[in-house]
Amino acid sequence: MAKNKVKLSPEARRKALRRLLRYSRPLIPIAAGAFVLAGISIVAAHFIPVLVGNAIDLAVGKGNVDISGILGILTVIPILAIVSALFDWLVRLAGLRLGASVTRDIRADCIRKIEKLPLSYLDSHRTGDTLSRMIADVDRMSEGLVTGITELYSSALSIIVTLIFMIVINYKVALVVALLTPLSMLVAAFISKRTFSLFHEQSTLAARETAVIDESVSGGAVVKAYSRADAITADFDELTGDFDELNEEYRKTATRAVFYSSITNPSTRFVNSLVYCGVALAGGLMAVANPLVTAGQISTLLYYAHNYAKPFNELSDVIAELQSSLASAARVFELLDTPDEPAELPDAAAIDPAKVEGSVRADGVEFSYTDRPFMAGIDFDVKPGMRVAVVGPTGCGKTTLINLFMRFYETNAGTITVDGKDIRHITRDSLRASFGMVLQDTWLKSGTVRENIAMGKPDATDEEIEAAARASHAHSFIKRLPKGYDTPLSEDGGQLSQGQKQLLCITRVMLALPPMLILDEATSSIDTRTEIKIQKAFAELMRGRTSFIVAHRLNTIKNADMILVMKDGRIIERGTHDELMKADGFYAGLYGAQFKSAEGA
Ligand SMILES: Nc1ncnc2c1ncn2[C@@H]1O[C@H](COP(=O)(O)OP(=O)(O)O)[C@@H](O)[C@H]1O
Ligand SMILES: [Mg+2]
Fold first, then answer.
1. What is the pLDDT of residues 321-353, one digit of tens each?
2. 134 lines ligand 1 (CB under 6 A)
3. How far is the CA of 575 from the centre of ligand 2 (A)?
4. Dihedral sign, CA of 43, 45, 46, 49?
């Protein structure tokens, strides 16, 4: 997380810009057209003061007034003004179109990326951070890109056109203007540099805040849903503490960023006024010394001098905006550049889940998330149809072991085989399809109950779906929903109880009937009555299938064929419940402690 604080190097900024421009490539014709129109619009707008100057000279020149000449000019001016405004509008439309299409393409890439991200990325990045990269950063970046580039172009072109017109009218006054404006640029450059790094920091802090809020909101829901408040409130307090600190940091950075961006306009405006005075003075002196300079020309030059400074004003804003959008772009590209799950081995073959018998073996498996060794010496031999329980204190590596079976992570040493085949030589998709998983965190997709159940077997008939729901004891509650199997569900399944969501996930597995099952603390947050139902559903499911059950409540795994007792990443005891009780070791201790606390409660 702290890595995000690193400021973008100019090299990184250029790279982000180049890559961002690549997304605009399909719309090059529109962009090119917009550039041409913007050019015409700017030249037309800048020609108006010349005409006004001419009109003034026709009115005051040599004491007489050339009415027809002035009328001629007065008809051209509105035409130029209309052309300029119309083209400017078209350019803006093109910009919006371009921005929307870049946003769409980058979001599409992000979504596709999320599917290919290794679990390790999702495990190590808070959801809120990933979300804010995909939503807020993508918006900021394409918005900044479009307004940034169009403004940059029109500002630069304004400066050039004005300069040329001024030189043609009177190069000496043009020189005064050109000499004084670097002042304006220096001020702008200094301020924008400060503003950029502060805005970057601010955007990083905002992402971190989003992440904490996301976590505490979901945590808050959990606290409300179950009365397991004690354990969670401690986490929550820690989160809240983190948040206050972050929030204070955010306030400081935001204040400084706002300070710098607030002095941008006043200070550049001050410098601009200096330029304006310089031109008036120089022009006036010249008119006195050299009667060839007319009043109309001085009026035109003054107008230019005034407006010459404006694009510099805009440039400083635009550069800050572009830089902040590039900072966002860099964060988005960082997400897009995360390596995918490692490629499959060349000889990896798919297995047919329907034909898997279900023997699972581990030999000398070692694994660690970081440099620090964590899991080692994992050996076991599970025969088809065996019911295996994995128990041990929180953090001992039960979920990690499951992640290794599913190849969410790869082992560092040792092998895991399924039906005698090294899982590294089995494609991930077919391996994962061979395991049915029910986890503590259920996940539903938005769609109807029916669609949610049929996820693992999209071609299932209504009869099959209902049969699966009956088998998992979910049918009766589904029938009571407002529209039965056609009741729409939201992603968080808000209208369902935790147990009902759990039952839906079990039904899903029941329908797909994979040869092997994994139940990871699937009943740990469910009331006893529902749990009994789920137990029954599980029993149904497990018949004839190799199953791995990770359970908090040890009384639920008493009849397992084998219990693996884990501690600190190792298997320290194994056997049936009776054997382990007789041995009176770690398991017996755990069981006794749970039994006592259950009685005391
Ligand atoms: N993605 C991860 N990156 C680093 N460490 C992790 C990651 N996931 C889990 N751990 C650590 O590995 C250990 C085992 O975690 P886990 O297998 O989830 O335990 P259990 O399921 O037994 O409660 C814990 O110390 C945990 O903090
Ligand atoms: Mg776990």
1. 888 888 888 888 988 888 887 788 888 899 998
2. no
3. 21
4. positive
